[in-house]
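Sample log: DUF3558 domain-containing protein.
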Amino acid sequence: MVKRAARAVLVGVLVLAGCTVEQAGLPLAGRPAAAERDERAVLAALRRTDACALLTPADGPVRPLGPHRCEVTTAGGVRVSVRLGMALTDRDRLDDYYPRALGEAKAYVERWANEPRTMCFLHLPVSHELSIRFAAFGGAENLCAVAASFAEGAAERLTKPETPRAGAPMASWDPCAMLSAVLDRRVAHDATGDHGIDACADERVRLSLAYGRLTGGEPSQVAGRRAVVSRGRGRCTVRWSNGPAGDAGEQLSELSAPDCALARRLAAAVATAPTAGEAVRPARQLLYRPEEPDLPVAGVCGYYTADPVRCRPHVPVPAPRGAAAVFRAASADANVTCAIAGDIVRAHAGTDVHAVIDDVAGCMFVEATRTVRVAVRITDGPVIVDESAHRTSLGGTSAWVSERTRPPTAERGIDVVLAEGTLSVSVHALAEVGSTRDQPPDQAHLDIANTVARDILAKHLT
């Protein structure tokens, strides 16, 4: 019996964009979930890394922006920057980037092209939450390729024993330790801003380190040091000099707070606080290998979710023969569905798709770029179809088809009701890598649902 009701969208497919980089060596199905790294050890290793050394050799002068931030302008006029300790959350990795191998390291490349195409971000993950971020700005035809060329060179240097050591002014300073000591509470490293590990913040106060000129604002002093004070947008900011930084200008600290009385008081305390954090042994390995999971899920589950409860690896099992046996076995174990559908899905969606088990969607076929995801479910229960679904014929068998498109995503679902049960096939797609967010996916990707359902019916269920 067919029930007319709203079909829950099981999962959306993620399509990614960016540059053309080797995809070989990405996670395989059997790999275990990544254990979370000790963030203190990761931060300690990042502080020992010379950001400017990661941009060399370059065809232009390298300009330090702060202890762990640097940029260069190429001969082609592209400005490339690197920032250590930037945010890269699970959601970022799944929604806005896609994984790529850069030599011996895993990278995440920006999935969507921006309009106008004036920038591209690329991350080298160093933990579940943090990364080394490269950014390319300018008018180059393929900014992601420019960012990737610098990131690949940096990854090669970072994987060698002679990893660049930071010797820049304030490189050993820990703004979180400094601010935490003054506030008498733990303040987290501010990975969401544009300073990476050169900044620390809580809901009221922010401290950052930079190089530059002490200009703008009202002249003042902080602990006997030259300073300026400025106000705006309900905040008061105090900047002061900690001494020269060579050609980069001066070593600057900046503290912002809701009012100037608080900002001045905290700035004076920070200026005389110990600059080093707790002694922590730096992480021996910063980057992830291309095949190494960096999400808290097993294997290729990381191609579409960061929820370890929802997804688990597919375990190969024999495929039964005969419709009745298939419905009976697949209803009890989605691994059977994978065995039934695997060769068929790969024939139509490509050999790069891998099977995982989703407790809601059944057997899910996923791939690294998240351009296409195919879900197959075989059950001996009734089907719930979308209220807008219409009837069609699939190889002579009646089926319900529903479809929705909201660029850059689209979904098509097919439900085939037979005497023994129901076959459901759905395809979730996003626009191709390098598309803009207002472009729809390729219609051919949605048509995979029809051909997969038709072939499963013909080969296994009739």
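Observation: Residues 1-29 have pLDDT under 50 and may be disordered.
Observation: The CA atoms of residues 251 and 349 lie 54 Å apart.
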